[in-house]
Amino acid sequence: MSEPDPIAPVHPAIAERQPEMAALADAVRRLVELSVATTAPASDVAAAAAGLDLIADLLGSYRPEAGASHSMGTPGQDTFAVSTMGERMPFDVVVGRYSPLALPVEITSDGRTARGRGRFTLPYEGPPGCIHGAVIAATFDIVFTAANILAGAAGPTASLTLRYRRPTRLYEEAVFEATVERTEGRRTFTSGRLVQGGVVTVEAEGVFVALDRETTRSLARRLEP
User: Fold this and answer.
1) Reported pTM
2) pLDDT in tens, 124-177
């Protein structure tokens, strides 16, 4: 049984301009892919760079002096649902809808198993034609977090172990699956696999440490500017 789909929260950084921020992220994603695949002559590359510098100057004029948290809520809180991870962490490097660094990976669940789906493109390449191992590890980390949320046992990562059984190809759907195996005290043990074309390409295991809410709030306060 799937978890209910609550109304997605709105991060203060994108409030009242969600469509425009999404369009900006989409445009930069497209640009990132083109920048690693273009065959344009040097003169056109130089012209594009100069134009982009002007755009960066425009956006840079609105940059806040101090950084701010890009997440909403804390994994493990009752209000934090797997179905809204991409909205609660809008600038996350894996699932953030508003981060041009993110594919983003789509997270779903059936109530116990969390799944992340995506078709990774050229900027995520490691071996020729294949997804970079570090990208795969980062995706497992967030999908494991989703599984831990389902089990009510979310917390920071203590260790993450991957076994790369075969290459995982770009441009083909990659499905990451994760399930909590057991908990021992404050530690949660989660396992998963990456499936592509019906074949397991990577197996993974993670250990996570549960933190109480006050400890989590304390950590957040230390990071405040």
Assistant:
1) 0.86
2) 999 999 999 999 999 999 999 999 999 988 899 999 999 999 999 999 999 999
Rounded Cα gap, residues 144 and 205, in angstroms: 9
Cis status of the peptide bond prior to 104, with omega within 30 of 0: yes
Domain 1-225 CATH assignment equals 3.10.129.10: yes
Omega of the bond prior to 6 within 30 degrees of 0, cis? no
Residue type, position 14, single letter: I
Asked if 86 and 97 touch (Cβ cutoff 8 Å), the reply is yes
Distance CA 209, CA 211 (A): 6
All structural domains of the chain with their residue ranges: 1-225
Pair 94, 103: CB distance under 8 Å: yes
Residue 158 has a CB neighbour count (10 Å cut-off) of: 13
